[in-house]
Write a structure and sequence with these properties.
Helix content: 55-70%
Number of domains: 2
């Protein structure tokens, strides 16, 4: 079993070309696999391919992304039905992630402008974008912590479930109870990863932003009271 799992991990695509790979093969399950089987296989493979366990492998991130994408599609009944019918991965990256990134930028900008007005600030475009980037970096750090905490909870529940054993082929009630929240945790983790992707995309947009306005006014900085700083023109 372990050798087959290692072989399956070694076959993971190092860089996915959308719709070119069979998600069932990526995850190493049959097309009739139940969600419990999909979850169990994903847990086993993700432990082996996680980038944190292979810091020197430049392909680890892409392999983990391919594995996670396969799980997110096959674990979602609606997405799985679409994939089974069309053979194509439901669109995600292009429009939906771009819109999510724009929503992050919009929400962050409105909050900072509101804070600027409260402090009598008049930030330039460059200062506003730099402050937005700082705010989004804080949000990314918070999301990373939530993902780490959820991963820890998932691992703990899985470990507890694996400790329960029964004799004579009886139903393993305690193990089933311990595993029950795992699907919900995986769903929450998928949502957190989508949120992380949107925030990182938003940060990349802002990092690539170009400015044509020349800065000539003297500016000072004031704390907004929540860890952010808004710079503004002195009168």
């Amino acid at each position: 079993m372990q050798s087959k799992l290692s072989e399956r991990v070694g076959q993971l695509p190092s860089a996915r070309k959308h719709n070119d790979d069979d998600l069932y093969k990526t995850l190493g399950v049959g097309k009739r696999a139940k969600r419990e089987t999909i979850l169990r296989q994903y847990r086993a493979m993700s432990k082996q391919v996680h980038p944190d366990t292979h810091p020197s492998d430049p392909t680890a991130v892409d392999k983990f992304k391919a594995l996670t994408e396969a799980f997110e599609v096959l674990n979602d009944p609606a997405k799985r039905a679409t994939y089974d019918k069309t053979g194509k991965i439901p669109p995600k990256v292009a429009d939906s992630e771009r819109q999510a990134a724009h929503a992050v930028i919009s929400e962050t900008m409105h909050k900072i402008i509101q804070q600027s007005l409260q402090f009598g600030a008049d930030p330039s475009e460059k200062e506003l974008v730099e402050t937005m980037r700082g705010a989004i970096e804080q949000q990314i750090a918070a999301i990373e912590k939530n993902i780490a905490d959820s991963d820890k909870a998932r691992a703990m529940l899985a470990d507890v479930a694996d400790r329960f054993t029964v004799d004579d082929g009886q139903a393993n009630l305690c193990a089933s109870i311990a595993r029950a929240p795992l699907v919900q945790i995986e769903t929450a983790l998928a949502a957190l990863r989508d949120k992380m992707a949107a925030h990182k995309a938003a940060h990349d947009y802002l990092r690539a932003y170009k400015f044509r306005r020349k800065e000539s006014k003297v500016r000072t900085a004031t704390s907004t009271g929540n860890g952010l700083f808004v710079t503004f023109s002195s009168s």
